[in-house]
From TrEMBL:
It comes from the Bacteria. Pfam families: Acetyltransf_8. Residues 10-58 form the Acyltransferase MbtK/IucB-like conserved domain. Gene3D superfamilies: 3.40.630.30. The keyword Acyltransferase applies. It comes from Streptomyces gottesmaniae. One of its GO terms (molecular function) is acyltransferase activity. Keywords: Acyltransferase, Transferase. Pathway: Siderophore biosynthesis; mycobactin biosynthesis. Acyltransferase required for the direct transfer of medium- to long-chain fatty acyl moieties from a carrier protein (MbtL) on to the epsilon-amino group of lysine residue in the mycobactin core. This is Lysine N-acyltransferase MbtK.
């Protein structure tokens, strides 16, 4: 990425990367991620559990050797969000957690660059047609970030509670947003 370095999107290694992810999710700014109170071991267990699914994947974004974000992808029809909108062929859902600013402080354009790397990965690397995001409707910063990135605002929906032995997710009011491949690449 011009002016920022080389970004690599790598499969998350639950054991090796749990410390990095735990450091990010325990911060107050990550409250909407829903993992603030978890220990590093619990974070590792969450991502080890995710590895069992063919429809949900986690990736660590690394820029010039430094972790800069977490990308989770999922097949909408295999997720609770698929109950809340008309899933189209080629859709992919994503959850994004950006690393906090480093020792040098915030860098203008940094968040946009990491999100651009994520969208390039899902559109080109995974050959998808449309991305759906579902941030908590109260997460104004995330919603504004997606809008600036070109996502079209969708409806507020209620994602149903999931209570299974391997995963628990409380009910969530989410603002859906969509980004089509054509909006990014003009194709």
């Amino acid at each position: 990425m011009d002016g920022f370095g080389t970004v690599r999107i790598l499969p998350l290694d639950a054991k090796a990367d749990a410390g990095v992810v735990h450091g990010w999710v325990r911060e107050p700014r990550a409250a909407f991620w829903g993992m603030n109170g978890l220990t590093e071991e619990q974070v590792r267990e969450v991502y080890e559990g995710l590895e069992a699914f063919d429809t949900h994947h986690a990736y660590l974004a690394v820029c010039d050797g430094e972790p800069v974000g977490l990308l989770q992808t999922y097949e909408p029809e295999a997720d609770r969000v698929g109950e809340c909108y008309d899933v189209e062929p080629g859709d992919i859902g994503v959850h994004v957690l950006l690393a906090p600013a480093g020792d040098g402080g915030a860098r203008p354009g940094w968040s946009s660059m990491v999100l651009a790397a994520f969208t390039s990965y899902v559109f080109v690397g995974l050959d998808r047609r449309r991305v759906v995001v579902d941030p908590d409707e109260r997460n104004e910063r995330a919603i504004a970030r997606f809008t600036r990135q070109g996502f079209e605002s969708g409806p507020v929906v209620v994602l149903p509670e999931i209570d299974l032995p391997e995963v628990y997710l409380p009910e969530k009011r989410a603002r859906l947003a969509f980004l089509r491949r054509e909006a990014v690449f003009g194709q």
